[in-house]
Amino acid sequence: MAAVLQFFMYFVLFFCPLCVWSGDRETSLLIIMNSISEIEAKQNDNNINEWKQEMTQFNNIQLLVPLEQFSSIHIHSLAPLMERIYSNYKDIDWFLFVRPDVKINFNNLQSFLLKHEGPKSKPYFIGYALKDDVYSIIHHFIPAGSLDYPSPEGFLMSNSAMKRVSKNIKSFKPSFTIDPSYELSLFLKYMKSPSLSDMFPTPPPPSSTGVLLTHSKRFCVAGNHGNDCVIESRDSGTYCLLPPVSKDNVFFAIKTCEKYHKERIPIQLRTWTAPAAGLRLQYYSDVADSNYRTVSIGLPNTERGHCAKLLEIFRVSFNDHEFDWLVIADDDTLIRYNIN
Predict the structure, then answer these.
(1) Alpha carbons 260 and 247: distance in angstroms, whole number
(2) What is a single Pfam family found in this protein's UniProt entry (predicted)?
(3) Claim: this prediction has a pTM higher than 0.85
(4) What is the side-by-side order of every strand in the sheet holding 29-33?
(5) What is the rounded distance in angstroms from the CA atom of residue 60 to the CA atom of residue 69?
(6) pLDDT tens digits, residue range 236-283?
(7) Tens digits of per-residue pLDDT, 90-113?
(8) 244-282 CB burial, b ≥16 within 10 A, e <16
(9) How would you classify residue 106: left for phi > 0, otherwise alpha for psi between -120 and 50, otherwise beta?
(10) CATH for 22-233?
């Protein structure tokens, strides 16, 4: 009997590619093109059209482009976007969030979903898991290794997981949003945005209703492709959305103050702001000092809130320099650049 059942499963997976999407079985999928950039989406029109062409073979797959449908929502934060999506698509079983430059292998995706039962009762959150080895400013300096989060190529959410996000959305209050996938994973783990003080020195255990990321190598990232990939990076280089610019068209305005002249500026002058780099730049401070290439903007330094200082840097930069791009940096920032 077991052999017969096994044979039947292989038959379904390899000889009936439409079965899982047929009307006889309520397995539905919503693909969300996860991009906040109209430029990026436009550059990948051909890839998105490939998705649409392949989707015509299946009955229960839909495509959602948040840039088109949710223009009023702050779509950079994934949890609020998910709440909006779930309120409109409560009957969907699975939600696949993918970048517009990703290849989707629909038949592999079909077989993958068959292995995960009960999407409306089990909270699945699946993707290629990443983990920080060191403390990171973009991840709020939360202890390294304490959170798995999905690679940006894409991840899969079940209906039950999306429902939990929607139910707890009022508790999503990140201190700031830089890496949406990381902040989403943190929220799913605790079903709230924990305060940074809660995370030190040791992060608390997950919430009893929390959803942790399940790692799957079938969500293939660059350099990790195989025949069973559900999605895979095309290595297209579209993360860089604009062509290289000339360094003559870029001006770097670096914020500092007198008490950090000796401590911080020499480090930058030995690295990315070294004269040999040939960059157009200026250090803006509360005190002019030729030893550190600083000029005064005529405002005293403040411990908190630098809006007036920043506005004055904008004004002086635009009045005194010509450029296509203005880069504002701090005196403790290291920048790696590749400009002509």
Answers:
(1) 27
(2) Fringe
(3) no
(4) 61-64, 29-33, 94-98, 149-158, 125-130, 214-215
(5) 20
(6) 444 455 577 888 999 999 999 999 999 999 999 999 999 988 999 999
(7) 999 999 999 999 999 999 999 999
(8) eeebeebbbbbbbbeebbeebbeebeeebbeeeeebebb
(9) alpha
(10) 3.90.550
